[in-house]
Specification:
The structure holds 2 protein chains of 2 kinds. Chain A is mainly beta. Chain A has strands at residues 5-12, 19-22, 31-38, 46-49, 57-64, 69-77, 80-81, 95-101, 110-119, 124-133, 142-145, 156-162. In chain A, the strands form 2 sheets. An 8-stranded antiparallel beta sheet of chain A has the order 1-12-3-8-9-10-5-6, with no helix packed on it. Chain B is an all-beta fold. The chains are: A mainly beta, B mainly beta.
Chain lengths: 165, 167
C-alpha cells in the first residue's frame, strides 16, 4: 500500500529544457503535489494536463510584486499559468513553484492551487492561483511548459502523491 | 525511506522568547515548518533567522486584512519575515496558522522559500500574509530560529519541523 506522502517522480535538469513532463502517473493516490525550484530564462511558465491544449482551462489569481496587489483571471484558456506576473521569473535567483491537484482521478472537473514565490532582493513576486480543468478524465500526465523559454540547468521538479486512505 | 517525516516539534509548556531547531540533518530535500502561535504583546510579525545569520535576507509580501490587499518589499534585512502570529489583543485562545516551505535547504545556491501566516480570530482585524523569501547564501541550513518582535510566544504555541525527501 502506498504511504501518505510519496515521491512519484523527480527530475533535475542536466541541460535546459522547454518542458518537464510527468507521465504514467499512477491512480493510487488522492491528490498530487508538484514542487519546482529553479529558474526560467524567459518570462513564461504554463501547465497542462494529459497533453490537452484545448480551451478547457480557467484560472483566478492574486499576486503582490512589492509595490501593488493585483488579481485577475481567464476563461477558456489552453493552459494554466504558473505565475501572476510572468516577468518575475526571469533571473538567476531560483523561484519556488508549487502545484496541488485535488482528486486527480475523480470523474468531476479538476481543480488545482498553484503558488509562486520568488524574491530577488529588490524585485519579485508572491502569487496564488486557483485553476480549473474542465475534464472528467483522470489525470495521467502533467506537463510544466516554459513556453517560448526554457527551464535552466539545475531546475528540479518533483511530483508527490498524497493518499487519504 | 519515508517521504514526509517529522524531524522535531516543540509545543510550549511555558512562554518562550524564541524557538530554535538546531542540528537539522542534511538527509532531506525540503523542509516544512508548521507554526501555530500567539504572542503576549501587540506585535504580529514572526521573525526567522537561519544558521544564526543576521544578514542578506529579503522578502516580497502580499497582505490581506479582510478589506484591502497590499504588497510591500524589504531588502537587506537582519531576519526573514516569516508570517504573522496572533497578538495579545486577539480573541482569547486563538492562535495563528502558518507554514514555511524551504526547498533545497542543503544546496549551495541562494535559498528561495515561501511562508504563509494567518491570524483569523472572529473579532479584530485578521491578516493573511503571503511571503516570498530569499536568503542569499551558499550555506546549507542547519538551524532555524523563530521569534516575535519584542515579545514571547505564549504557552500552547506549537512548532513542527518536517523533512521531505525526493530521493
Amino acid at each position: 500500500m502506498a504511504t501518505t506522502y510519496d515521491k512519484i517522480q523527480s527530475t533535475t535538469l542536466a541541460s535546459a529544457a522547454a518542458s518537464i513532463t510527468f507521465s504514467s502517473i499512477p491512480a493510487t493516490y488522492t491528490d498530487l503535489r508538484v514542487v519546482l525550484t529553479g529558474t526560467v530564462n524567459g518570462d513564461t511558465a504554463y501547465m497542462t494536463f494529459n497533453s490537452d491544449t484545448s480551451a478547457l482551462y480557467s484560472r483566478t489569481w492574486m499576486t503582490g510584486d512589492g509595490s501593488g496587489a493585483y488579481s485577475g483571471g481567464g476563461t477558456n484558456e489552453n493552459n494554466i499559468r504558473l505565475a501572476g506576473l510572468f516577468t518575475s521569473l526571469i533571473n538567476t535567483v531560483p523561484a519556488l513553484i508549487t502545484v496541488d491537484v485535488f482528486s486527480y482521478t475523480g470523474s468531476t472537473f479538476k481543480t488545482c492551487l498553484t503558488t509562486l514565490s520568488v524574491d530577488k532582493n529588490g524585485s519579485g513576486e508572491t502569487a496564488r492561483e486557483v485553476g480549473l480543468y474542465r475534464s472528467t478524465a483522470a489525470i495521467t500526465t502533467l506537463t510544466l511548459n516554459a513556453g517560448v523559454s526554457t527551464y535552466t540547468t539545475g531546475t528540479t521538479a518533483t511530483l508527490y502523491g498524497i493518499l487519504k486512505a | 525511506m519515508a517521504t514526509y517525516t517529522l524531524i522535531s516539534s516543540n509545543v510550549l509548556a511555558s512562554s518562550a522568547a524564541s524557538v530554535t531547531f538546531s542540528a537539522i540533518p542534511a538527509t532531506y530535500t525540503d523542509l516544512v515548518l508548521r507554526v501555530s502561535a500567539r504572542g503576549d504583546n501587540t506585535s504580529l510579525l514572526l521573525e526567522m533567522t537561519l544558521n544564526s545569520a543576521t544578514s542578506t535576507y529579503s522578502n516580497t509580501l502580499l497582505l490581506g486584512d479582510g478589506a484591502t490587499a497590499s504588497s510591500t518589499r524589504n531588502t537587506g534585512q537582519a531576519y526573514l519575515r516569516a508570517g504573522y502570529v496572533n497578538p495579545s489583543g486577539s480573541t482569547a485562545s486563538t492562535f495563528s496558522s502558518g507554514e514555511i516551505y524551504i526547498p533545497n535547504y542543503t544546496s549551495t545556491t541562494d535559498k528561495p522559500m515561501s511562508s504563509l501566516g494567518m491570524t483569523e480570530n472572529n473579532a479584530t482585524t485578521a491578516y493573511i500574509a503571503n511571503y516570498a523569501n530569499l536568503w542569499q547564501t551558499s550555506s546549507a541550513i542547519t538551524s532555524i530560529s523563530l521569534q516575535v518582535t519584542g515579545q514571547n510566544f505564549v504557552t500552547g504555541s506549537s512548532f513542527y519541523l518536517y523533512g521531505i525527501s525526493n530521493a
